[in-house]
Design a protein that fits this description.
474 residues; alpha/beta; eight-stranded mixed sheet; seven-stranded mixed sheet; 19% strand
Length: 474
């Protein structure tokens, strides 16, 4: 026993030294070290199990290779870069970072349409699907059989019969309880090519921890949609879950669609045994600038590239705001850097308002979110809760000229662990519509006061503070 105990102490020390010197957010390191110190054997084994997964390394290397293959299709137009530099140099620096670090160029010649509710996006989605002539790509975190998916599937079957190529990607964890295990084979019967991303393999793999949280629709390389809206009835309020469901999305039409086409095909070729060629799906570039469309940067976030793209974009918007930053998010599980940026912005005189759900989908996430309220409110951040129900939107809008809409929540999972995507929009008239939607949503909210925060039950206070210790691993 002394020899076993001694070996365990040595192994524990090696793992902790490795953690301290490893790359990554300190919050993750602290949580792992606490687990290892509290439960030496179990903590070390669990850490090694999650970090030494051959499957994770395989998909990381495959995705890296695929991303390099598409580099020639993701070239930045120098005229566009010079134009955004002349317009707003800070955003030009962001464009440089996104292009050079993760390979997502800035586009002009792209029309943007904002959807303030799931029903509006669903209606437009049907219109665009019916217009498809060549191909349809769908990549979603959750697909649930019901009115919404049945309506879409009916259109997809019809399009396949017309000769349109249809490809479907969905997340194995997100659809664990909503779709049968053999669903890809069922789709193949209809002529729909289907792949599952990160399928669940209990006790055998941790690849499922890196979920495909994206929501992407591409039709003919002509239009692309993204946002928070999955393919399930609660997202269009056909089914009541947690009161009224408030969600948002955007549609792109023009050059920037190409980035979403490539995002989808990269994920397809990473998880598919039969990769496809990219060139048949890419649209020709447009010439000349249409000033009213401004600048659009579609971006993806991967847990494998050591670039926290979504969080960097959120930081950028807050750090360069002059008047206000308005935020909608379903979750508030923050790292130290995000807390510092939010509070510094508010202390600097920037109006920082966050709209959160009043009826949560996960009680424990709500209890955890409440632990941040006091510090944020005392710094001047205004927090509102959406009285009619649940906010699932992921929106930042600032100064009437800058916004981002996508799939990225303000929590550790979205910012560090999941595959995500979004659209950065600058100098486009739809930004004003996003802000108008925020203001209209605000009229249905109540402002959270410090008195309300202090009235939390003792149970919620204890649970929230305890969960905060393990927040990075939730």
């Amino acid at each position: 026993m002394p020899w076993i105990y001694g070996a365990l102490i040595v192994l524990e020390g090696i793992v902790i030294i490795h953690l301290i010197n490893s790359k990554g957010n300190p919050a993750f390191k602290n949580t792992w070290m606490l687990l290892i110190l509290l439960f030496p054997f179990v903590g070390v084994v669990f850490y090694l199990f999650t970090k030494l997964q051959p499957e994770s390394y395989f998909f990381r290397n495959k995705l890296t290779t695929v991303h390099i293959e598409t580099q020639k299709y993701r070239t930045q137009n120098d005229l566009t870069l010079r134009a955004i530099w002349a317009s707003k140099s800070a955003h030009a620096l962001l464009a440089h970072y996104l292009n050079n670090s993760v390979g997502y160029p800035t586009y002009k010649n792209t029309r943007v349409k904002y959807f303030p509710i799931g029903e509006a996006k669903f209606e437009e989605m049907q219109i665009q699907l019916k217009k498809a002539k060549k191909f349809i790509f769908l990549e979603y975190f959750i697909i649930d059989e019901g009115y919404m998916w049945d309506t879409i599937l009916k259109i997809l079957k019809k399009k396949v019969r017309e000769g349109v190529e249809v490809r479907l990607l969905y997340d194995g964890m997100g659809c664990l309880t909503t779709l049968p295990k053999n669903y890809p084979k069922e789709m193949e019967k209809y002529g729909i090519k289907c792949q599952v991303v990160s399928s669940l393999k209990p006790f055998l793999s941790t690849i499922q921890n890196n979920r495909d949280h994206r929501k992407i629709l591409v039709v003919d390389g002509r239009i692309a949609m993204t946002g928070g809206i999955n393919l399930a009835d609660e997202y269009i309020n056909k089914k009541r879950r947690f009161g009224h469901w408030k969600d948002t999305a955007v549609m792109l039409q023009g050059e920037a669609v190409q980035s979403f086409t490539i995002m989808f095909l990269e994920m397809w070729n990473t998880f598919s045994k039969t990769p496809v060629d990219y060139e048949p799906y890419l649209a020709p570039s447009l010439h000349g600038f249409k000033r009213e469309y401004g600048y659009v940067i579609p971006y993806a976030d991967s847990p494998f590239d050591h670039e926290n793209v979504g969080e960097e974009i959120y930081f950028h918007i807050m750090n360069h705001a002059k008047k206000y930053v308005h935020i909608m998010t379903p979750y508030l599980i923050l790292d130290n850097e995000m807390i510092t940026t939010l509070t510094r912005s508010a202390k600097s005189g920037i109006e920082v308002i966050i709209i959160m759900p009043h009826i949560p989908d996960k009680w424990y996430a709500y209890a955890l979110a409440k632990t941040y309220y006091k510090e944020l409110i005392e710094a001047g951040v205004q927090i509102y809760e959406y009285n009619p129900g649940f906010v699932h939107a992921k929106v930042f809008v600032s100064d009437d000229d800058t916004a981002t809409v996508g799939t990225i929540n303000l929590d550790y999972r979205s910012l560090y662990l999941h595959f995500e995507c979004g659209v950065f929009i600058y100098n486009n008239s739809e930004v004003l519509k996003i802000e108008d939607d925020f203001q209209r949503t605000l009229t249905k909210c109540h402002k959270v006061s410090l008195i309300e925060v202090k009235k939390r039950s003792l149970f919620y206070v204890i649970v929230g503070k305890a969960l905060r210790i393990f927040a990075p691993l939730m």
